Amino acid sequence: MSDGRRTAAFLSVLLGAAGVLHLTRPAPFDSIVPPGLPGPARVYTCASGAAELVVAGLLVPPRTRRLGGLAACALLVAVFPANVQMAYDWRHARPRKRVIALARLPLQGVLIAQARHVTR
Known about the structure:
Order of helices and strands: HHHHH
Helix content: over 70%
Largest sheet: none
Number of domains: 1
Strand content: under 5%
Distance between the termini: 16 Å
Number of helices: 5
Membrane topology: Multi-pass membrane protein
Transmembrane segments: 67-88
Domain Methylamine utilisation protein MauE: 8-82
Radius of gyration: 15 Å
Protein name: Methylamine utilisation protein MauE domain-containing protein
GO cellular component, one term: membrane
Structural class: mainly alpha
């Protein structure tokens, strides 16, 4: 399996699992939706979960893999504000939670770079 295919498979599993979690256990995701967005947080949680499932599906077949990589880049950029919100909300939490929230910020950049790799 080529490096690009392995990266696409990894992202597909990651986004697919995240999508399922967004739709089946939405409360934790609702809590990190930035409060400045209009409308209920649940709408954003469900929309991002559905988008994650669609993007995961696009990453699997070779014919749509490049599009899936582009869509993954866009999706990962779009949900980054939720990671920032989590880091802000957890700034006074226990050290373990703070580390998790802060680690998600650079990790998002790594995932975006992986999605870009899939587009090549």
